[in-house]
Amino acid sequence: MPIYLGTFLIALTTLALEITLTRLLSVITWYHLAFFAVATAMLGMTAGAVTVYLKPNWFTPEKRSLNVAKAALGYAVVTPISLIILCFTPIVFQFSLISLLMLIIATTACSLPFYFSGIVITVALTQYPLPIGKLYASDLIGAALGCLLVLGGLEILDAPSLILLCAAIAVLSALSFAGQQSLKLRYWGIGLLILLLGATLFNATTGSLYPFVVKGRMEQNQYLLDKWNSFSRIVVFNRLNEAPKLLWGASPVAPQKILPIHYMTIDGEAATGVQRFSSPEDIDHLRFDLTNIAYYLRPKGGACIIGVGGGKDLQSAIAFGHQKVIGIDVNPIFIDLLQNEFRTFAGLADHKAVTFVVDEARSYLSRTSDHYAIIQMSLIDTWAATGAGAFSLSENALYTVEAWQTFFNRLTDDGIFTVSRWYDAENLGETGRLVSLAVASLLESGITQPADHLAMFAIGNLSTLLVSKQPFTNQELTQLKQINTDLAYQLIMMPKTPPHHDTLKEIISVSSLAELRNVIADKPLNYEPPTDDNPYFFNMLKWQTLYPALQLQAGANAGVIGGNLHATLTLISLIVCLFLLTLITIIIPLLFKTLGQAGQPQGVAPTTDVFHALGKRYILISALYFSLIGAGFMFVEIALIQRLSVFLGHPTYALGILLFTLISSTGIGSL
């Protein structure tokens, strides 16, 4: 029984740590490192398994339990050390020796705990004379519950505190394996357990240990609030700024009003703010924001805001006179802030027109029967990893043809869907893909002249696209031109005024999906309209045209395309780094062992004899068999996470529930 319990606990803490590291790395670096925690975990555990293979004399029956307990304690000791290293190490991706050194340090820090858990799990599954089915079930059921620990734990604790708790759980595993063999080890284990639990409680209440280097910059602990959950970290700065205005696309003629604003960041980068709203005068300046241009055409009829953030878009709808404003946000922290800490300051929770909904917008709108004159989605993106893959953003499900058809269905007969994204006049980038998505969505809805339903305006590095359910009337076009003149915006396109950019002109001129695909097929960037089967709106690079795309976007200064390029190069760098570490820690030691250059204890057959006995072909086929099982498992997992996130309302729920179901089912099946 102690062996089963020890295996259960080490598997639980291993998977919980792996997922929590994904959350921490998303804050420290960028969303495209979602796979990095998984890769380093696999690297560390494989290195641990190789150690067991190379050093069988460490795990003979008389030494086995004691050394396994020591390995579990090693996990508990190095986990806080790795956490401190990650919090203080600047991970900046540049082509320099210092950057490479920092990356190697971070990779090693991430891998170390899993090296020790790899030793424990390998010995538990291969060395104990117990039913393998029951041992495997203990391992997998523990791992499955580790998924749920993260989902629940990050609602209560911050990521560093949860990592410290994972270390404490490893001590319990060590005590289970040790049994009564070593009184000294038990004393050390109990002392370490008390220390780790105390550190967890202390950090959870004081926030003393936090990421000091975020996105390559020193983080200053000047927070009013620092809140974590299973998919984000929201920081509210304690300094109350007296800012001229909180406008994403400010008109040059906007009034220079001074307002108190609390700025916030999501995972250290994506910024928003909450501004005071105590009277209509406090929000009147929002009429001069490009993101709100659709309200001039539809000042009444109800508004639905996708992505509440600090509440600015809700305040905008109120400023234009809407009597029914629904704010939907997948992140409960934002709505909790507006309903509690900033209830009076933001003036939204008590406003009679406002209703908050905590849900994934697409999921909610597919269930409701309400219709809105305006559905607004302004700059909805974060750099947060969801765990579904290296290029997963929690907002990907909002930028697909199927999602936009859902939004169209929730518009009134004359409703407008307005989307604001980053814009670069010199590099079409995401603007082209946004327009392509709009055109495809209109075509799928049975509209054969999509250009009659589209209008786009820009100011600086921001653009706003209006997608009307009905063709724009002559009166509306005249009104839009007048607004554009009065507020000094830049007209990109509208009916009877085609865009100057040739690619945009080609995209909006199509009358079928086949024609659209032909138009965008030879472009250097991927302008293919995303679908639920391929939802990665923000991943615009084509491997076959990577070099031309790099040249085209070399001067890009707006939007996610620069981050997309950076992410791709970073992934390549990480793959190279992980390959080198795998070569050094796994492949080379195994080659030496295979060639008979490692000593064997008495009574253990040399590795070469094992190869001859089983046959190299048999071993290679077996390795290929299990590798394909693992690859197939990951392919199924990633695809199901992407699909289930739409139905469950959030990719994190999909990750936790799916992993729990898959792993626990596998564990039960092994009994």
Number of domains: 2
CATH class of the largest domain: Alpha Beta
Question: What is the CATH topology of the largest domain?
Answer: Rossmann fold
User: Main sheet, how many strands, which sense, barrel?
Assistant: 8 strands, mixed
What is the strand arrangement across the widest sheet?
10-9-8-11-12-14-13-15
CATH superfamily of the largest domain: Vaccinia Virus protein VP39
Distance between the termini: 15 Å
Strand percent estimate: 5-15%
Radius of gyration: 28 Å
Structural class: alpha/beta
- How many separate helices? 22
Specify the overall morphology.
Answer: elongated
Q: Return the average pLDDT rounded to an integer.
A: 84
**Low-confidence blocks of residues:** 383-394, 602-608
Share of helical residues: 40-55%
Overall strand count: 15
Query: Which architecture of the largest domain per CATH?
Result: 3-Layer(aba) Sandwich
Salient structural properties:
671 residues; alpha/beta; Growth Hormone, Chain: A; Rossmann fold; 2 domains; 8-stranded mixed β-sheet; 15 strands; 53% helix; elongated
Structural summary, described in words:
It is a single chain. The protein has helices spanning 2-28, 34-54, 64-88, 97-126, 132-156, 159-178, 183-206, 280-283, 312-320, 332-339, 343-346, 361-367, 401-409, 429-444, 474-486, 502-508, 513-520, 546-552, 561-594, 607-614, 616-648, 651-669; strands spanning 213-214, 217-218, 223-229, 232-237, 241-243, 259-266, 270-275, 303-306, 325-329, 354-358, 372-378, 411-422, 454-459, 462-468, 490-493. The model is unreliable at 383-394 and 602-608 (pLDDT under 50). It has 2 domains: 2-213 and 567-576, Growth Hormone, Chain: A (Up-down Bundle); 286-559, Vaccinia Virus protein VP39 (Rossmann fold), CATH 3.40.50. Strand 13 and strand 14 (462-468) form a beta hairpin. With 671 residues, the chain is α/β, with parallel strands linked by helices. It contains 22 helices and 15 strands.
